[in-house]
């Protein structure tokens, strides 16, 4: 638990809340813990725009406990996104889990904070296994099964919704790291995607020639609701699949 933060006011807002070499992943108890390390973190007090700086941070949050280094309020719910925070009272830095991506319930005496990531649990209240470097989160799970396999045997030729909210936190991410695939068409075929509700443009993410079966990593744009739309440009013989391997967290300044 590093201590001795430096408190300053007047720093430009663009430089407040930053984590250098941020690494977030499961703790030693994978199902219930999240570990956060960073070489340096700048935490802001949103009430007065002052900040504190801590070096060589290594904190672990356990969702089965409450308060600092645990869950901010209440008890764990299953199939739920939890947002990962670093917090401080000005002297020490700790971690916190919260269902809020913007305003966690802070322990008494703590005012400085920065959200550094997100984690979701499953129906058994076990955290997904993941690693996050900076803004990029990757799952260490079998992504060829539910809930990571968000599309299987897809054959729609008009834009159709695909819901990613079980594996991408829509409150903080509009970009899914995906692995689309197309199988053995009778003619050339492609997959188009677009954010839900965006009718102005679409993106070809995969195109294959007759008889090919191809899978390739790509970035999928999502709507603010965590949904993308897809369609194929041929009508038969081209089953499509899409597995989500991770996401880009645009709200993390790292």
Structure, described:
The chain has 254 residues and is mainly β. The protein folds into 2 domains: 6-134, Tail fiber receptor-binding protein; 149-248, Jelly Rolls. Helices cover 0% and strands 48% of the residues. It contains no helices and 20 strands. It has strands spanning 6-8, 18-20, 23-26, 33-45, 50-62, 70-71, 81-88, 93-98, 112-120, 130-133, 136-139, 149-154, 160-163, 175-183, 189-195, 203-208, 213-215, 218-221, 227-232, 240-248. Strands 1, 2, 3, 4, 5, 10, 11, 12, 14, 17, 18 and 20 form a 12-stranded antiparallel sheet that branches. A 4-stranded mixed sheet has the order 6-8-7-9, with no helix packed on it. Strands 13-19-15-16 form a 4-stranded antiparallel sheet, with no helix packed on it. Mean pLDDT is 90; it is low at 6-14.
What would you say about this model in short?
This protein is mainly β and 254 residues long. It has no helices and 20 strands.
Task: Give the SSE map.
Elements: E1 6-8, E2 18-20, E3 23-26, E4 33-45, E5 50-62, E6 70-71, E7 81-88, E8 93-98, E9 112-120, E10 130-133, E11 136-139, E12 149-154, E13 160-163, E14 175-183, E15 189-195, E16 203-208, E17 213-215, E18 218-221, E19 227-232, E20 240-248
Parallel strand pairs: 6-8
Antiparallel strand pairs: 1-5, 2-4, 3-4, 3-10, 4-5, 7-8, 7-9, 10-11, 11-20, 12-20, 13-19, 14-17, 14-18, 14-20, 15-16, 15-19
């Amino acid at each position: 638990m590093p201590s001795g933060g430096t408190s300053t006011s007047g720093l430009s807002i663009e430089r407040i809340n930053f984590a250098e070499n941020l690494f977030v992943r499961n703790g030693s108890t994978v199902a219930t813990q999240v570990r956060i390390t960073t070489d340096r973190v700048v935490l802001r007090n949103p009430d007065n725009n002052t900040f504190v700086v801590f070096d060589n941070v290594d904190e672990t949050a356990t969702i089965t406990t409450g308060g600092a280094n645990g869950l901010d309020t209440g008890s764990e719910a299953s199939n739920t996104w939890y947002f990962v925070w670093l917090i401080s009272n000005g002297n020490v830095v700790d971690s916190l889990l919260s269902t809020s991506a913007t305003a966690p319930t802070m322990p008494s005496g703590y005012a400085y904070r920065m959200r550094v990531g997100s984690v979701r649990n499953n129906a058994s209240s076990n955290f997904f296994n993941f690693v996050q470097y900076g803004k990029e989160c990757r799952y260490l799970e079998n992504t060829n099964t539910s809930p990571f396999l968000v599309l299987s045997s897809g054959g729609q030729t008009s834009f159709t919704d695909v819901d990613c909210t079980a594996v991408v936190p829509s409150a903080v991410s509009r970009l899914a790291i995906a692995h689309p695939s197309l199988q053995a068409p009778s003619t050339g075929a492609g997959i188009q995607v677009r954010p839900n509700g965006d009718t102005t443009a679409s993106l070809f993410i995969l195109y294959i020639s007759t008889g090919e079966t191809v899978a390739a990593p790509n970035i999928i744009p999502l709507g603010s609701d965590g949904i993308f739309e897809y369609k194929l440009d041929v009508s038969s013989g081209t089953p499509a699949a899409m597995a989500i391997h991770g996401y880009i967290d645009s709200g993390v300044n790292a």
